[in-house]
Amino acid sequence: MELQKNLQRIILAELLVPLTLFIFGAYHGVLQVMYQSGVIRATSVAGIDYYQGLTAHGVINALVLTTFFAVALGYAVVSQELKSHVSIAGATLSLALMLLGAVMAAVMIFLGKASVLYTFYPPLMAHPLFYAGLVLFIVGSWVPMFTWIPVYLRWRKEHRGQKTPLGVVGIFATFIVWQMATLPVAFEVLVQLLPWSLGWTTGVNVMLSRTLFWFFGHPLVYFWLLPTYVLYYTMLPKLAGGKLFSDFAGRFTFMSLILLSCPLGLHHQFADPGISTTSKGIQGVLTMLVVIPSLLTAFTLAASLELAARQRGGKGLFGWWKKLPYFNPENWLFPYLFCGLVIFLFGGITGIVNASYSMNNVVHNTAWVPAHFHLTVGGPVFLGILGGSLFLITGLLKKPVVSGTMALIVPYMWTVGTFVFSSGFFLGGLRGEPRRTNLGLTYMNPASPSYRPDWWMATHMGLVGGCIMGLAVLLYFIVLIRSLTAAPDAARAQVPFLLPMSEPYHDEDIFAVRNFTPWVVAAVLLCVAAYYAPFRNIVKNGITTAPGFRPDSPAPIDTVHRKA
Amino acid sequence: MAINVLEKRAMLGAVAFVAVSLALIAYATWGLGINVPTCIPLGSKPYDQASVLKHEGKNYEVHYITRMWAFEPSVLRVPTGSTLDLYAVTKDVTHGFEITGTNVNLMVVPGAIANSRIHFAKPGIYTIVCHEFCGKNHQNMNSRIEVSDAFADYSVEGLPASPGMKLLDAKGCLACHTVDGSASVGPTFKGAWGTTLQLEDGSIRTLDSALFLQKVHDPTAFVVKGYPPVMPVIQLTDDETEQIEAYLEGLRQ
Predict the structure, then answer these.
(1) From the candidates A57, A267, A268, A372, which is the catalytic residue?
(2) Residues B146 and B171 in one domain
């Protein structure tokens, strides 16, 4: 069954609009490594301030691009796998709210009214329209799941006893995590920041807002990752020419991420005052538990690839690795997913370092952190989004990919680039180089008393890696634009577009992963247990509230006279 | 139906990995004593003056102020082998407090006091870097701690005098009274405000605004027990009195 025509258009908009914004996100990524290594020694380039561009880089790449892709993929998978029509009104409303919100936030950033970075920590204060834009964007992203629920319930009624398709389980897991994660940040923005930026309140409890933010901020990374997990569990084995080793592993992974995504945000606040070491320790342990579904995923995907390689004639304990379709232009999507998986191996290991409680003292807020997350959100997630978007866009428009060879070079270039970039940033982080700082003006400036020659190697590896990453993105856009402008492929037009879905090799039916409800209930209880004490302490003790500050002045904003 | 046996082994392997990791973290925390920053109750009143307190031996308590875009003090010199109890508060936005190359790594959040301890076994120059975005000059915000065998005691630079402090200096008060707790001709101002004083005539009074003004206007009215009656009359306007009182209040513990 083909997707509804209107839904196809909505999905195309959800993919193409953020990709267009991403051109700036990528451009400023390259500029950042130039600023940081001292190639650029300035506060701004072409009218865009370093921290303003950095805000755009974070908001566009980590929020707008990722969320739109999750929604677009969600619609494609749910509609295809449940063989059902979905509400076009709901999809249109969601798209409209998300677009309006993203444009509002983007305009405020480009006007220089919201240079507060994508974590928007108060008491730095942005323009109210920036906060309002974020709220609209988030609310827009809530709509789809609620329109899928009745479709899914109807499907269950008509298919009693059947397992929910694995892709649909993954998409629901994605949006259940998103729903749980975004409630606290919506509270932070609506109750704390928006009234405060409008001058209705004189101050915010900063510890409360930080804790609400990180309640959202860590599940956010699983929200980034889950759509890519959907691609890995459903599409990768088939693209490799085989089957998914275990259907249960996929279901278990999705369910356990529902359970474990939220009650561990405090590991971003190990260095914060005002939170007890007990609360930090409990959430540190919970963070470690995520290793279990992650390693199970690594095992299952490796086993699936091995199965496929052996079917292709691969032999020996390790020799089968040679038989995978690494460089087949017809199968250009495989390396996007495969390279992402390789990068993620290192992203996962370095994530364990960050989460290891007192080890965080060494790397907290240093360049180590962006080094790590460019191997997660910047690795598997980003390559999944690039590959998935190109696949969906050309598939829905019935266009050929011009050319498959160029398309498959992108993920390899990106992998080389991120490895060089992140190796440099890891090195810098271990030597104390701060993250998101315009280093070229001081620390990487031989004329400054703050000059740190011991950060030279780190920032220059970042420079080289970042430029390779930029070239990979450039190549991707050449392929995308050439494909978009090519004449439709007559052969493709004959058959309905479908996402490739793998068959399971092991298909055990394990009762514990058949139902969402117990996992969601357990997740909510775990959140309450993990967050009750820190929130209680902060609300009870954090009477002091902070007035707002603009990034360009140490004088507090006068909330009373500001409007005059 | 049962879970595939290879998969079971993979899961057991993952569980074992987690167990070993947690055991190592527990060892680092309790065995080696490397912990994350503790919680100082948010309700406790943050200080608003940077200062250094000398304790016994080479132990110091350093109260840092962070603000856009500087640390106070901007330079701290201590002898090799010193142990520093570090505190940091912010006067404006959230700042970072990272001594590069060490385990000191703190967030300085409005309304709360950040705290860590460091022992300087080796001489050298250590940089404190603000690693949290705090506005347009964030990249300029750093401070240094110099550790050397050549220093007999601590010294600081970059403690901007408050109006109250400047007045104490201008009126000559600092000739006989210290603000860091050390002994001098008269009692120290450090931590004195709001405390009860035992007087030479045997009475007990609380150091508040009334007692302070009485002493300033008529130094012979009473004398704190154990100190000589040598204080002259000090002329203060109402504004000056207010500024000095605010400063003295900030010196209380």
Answers:
(1) A372
(2) no
Spell out which residues of chain A touch residue B98, defining contact as CB-CB under 8 Å: 364-366, 432, 434
The answer to whether residue B14 sits within a structural domain is no
Judge whether B57 is closer than 8 Å to chain A, CB to CB.
no
Under 8 Å CB pairs connecting chains A and B tally to: 226
Residue B233 corresponds to which amino acid? V
Q: Is A9 a catalytic residue?
A: no
CATH number of the domain at A325-495, please? 1.20.210.10
CB–CB of A274 and B39 under 8 A?
yes
Residue A564 pLDDT more than 70? no
**Chain A: nearest CA to B114, how far in angstroms?**
5
Q: Are residues B92 and B185 in the same domain?
A: no
Say whether both B143 and B173 belong to one domain: no
**Could you state, in order of their start, the residue ranges of all structural domains in chain A?**
12-164, 187-310+515-558, 325-495
Find out whether B75 and B146 touch, Cβ atoms under 8 Å: yes
Q: Tell whether B193 and B121 lie within a shared domain.
A: no
Percentage above 70 pLDDT, chain B:
96
**B84 contacts B78 by C-beta, under 8 angstroms:** yes
Nearest CA in chain B to A546: B110
What confidence tier does B1 reach under pLDDT thresholds 50, 70, 90? low
CATH number at residue B143: 2.60.40.420
Interface of B with A in 202-221 (CB under 8 A): none
Contacts of A424 (CB under 8 A, 6+ apart): A371, A457, A458, A459, A460, A461, A462, A463, A464, A465
In the numeric block, the tokens 């050319």 are attached to A403
List the single residue in A272, A357, A510 with the smallest CB-CB distance to B1: A510
pLDDT at B40 over 80: no
Could you read off the pLDDT of A542-552 as tens digits, one per residue? 666 788 999 98
Instruction: Report whether B63 contacts B47 (CB < 8 A).
Output: yes
Q: Is residue A533 within 8 Å of residue A190, measured between CB atoms?
A: no
Would residue B109 count as lying in a domain? yes
Q: Tell me, what's the pLDDT at B176?
A: 83
What is the C-alpha to C-alpha distance for residues A269 and A274, in angstroms, rounded to an integer? Answer: 10
Residues B222 and B241 in one domain: yes
Task: Name the domain boundary from B157, B176, B191.
Answer: B157
**Residues of chain B with C-beta less than 8 angstroms from the C-beta of A364:** 98, 105, 131
Which one from A28, A267, A374, A460 is the annotated catalytic residue? Answer: A374
Structural domain harbouring B175: 163-250
Contacts of A360 in chain B (CB under 8 A): 36, 105
* Max CA pair span of chain B: 95
Q: Please tell me the distance in Å from B55's CA to the nearest CA on chain A.
A: 24
For the stretch B135-144, pLDDT in tens is 999 999 999 9
In this predicted structure, the answer to whether residue A563 has a pLDDT above a threshold of 50 is no
pLDDT at B248: 85
- Nearby residues of A352 by Cβ (< 8 Å), 6 or more positions away: A288, A291, B21
Residue A161: its pLDDT value, please? 87
A435 belongs to the catalytic site: yes
Shared-domain flag, residues B193 and B150: no
Q: B106 and A273: CB-CB below 8 Å?
A: yes
Radius of gyration of chain B (CA): 25
The per-residue pLDDT for range A32-75, each reduced to its tens digit, is: 999 999 999 999 999 999 999 999 999 999 999 999 999 999 99
Total domains, chain B: 2
Q: Single out the residue in B141, B157, B173 at which a domain terminates.
A: B157
Phi-psi region of A120 (alpha: psi -120 to 50; beta: other; left: phi over 0): left
Is residue A202 very low, low, confident or very high in pLDDT (cuts 50, 70, 90)? confident
Within-domain flag for B23:
no
Chain B residue with Cα closest to A118 = B133
Q: What is the per-residue pLDDT across A331-380, written as a single tens digit (0 to 9) for each?
A: 999 999 999 999 999 999 999 999 899 899 999 999 999 999 999 999 99
Q: What percent of chain A is predicted at pLDDT more than 70?
A: 98
**Is B185 in the same domain as B150?**
no
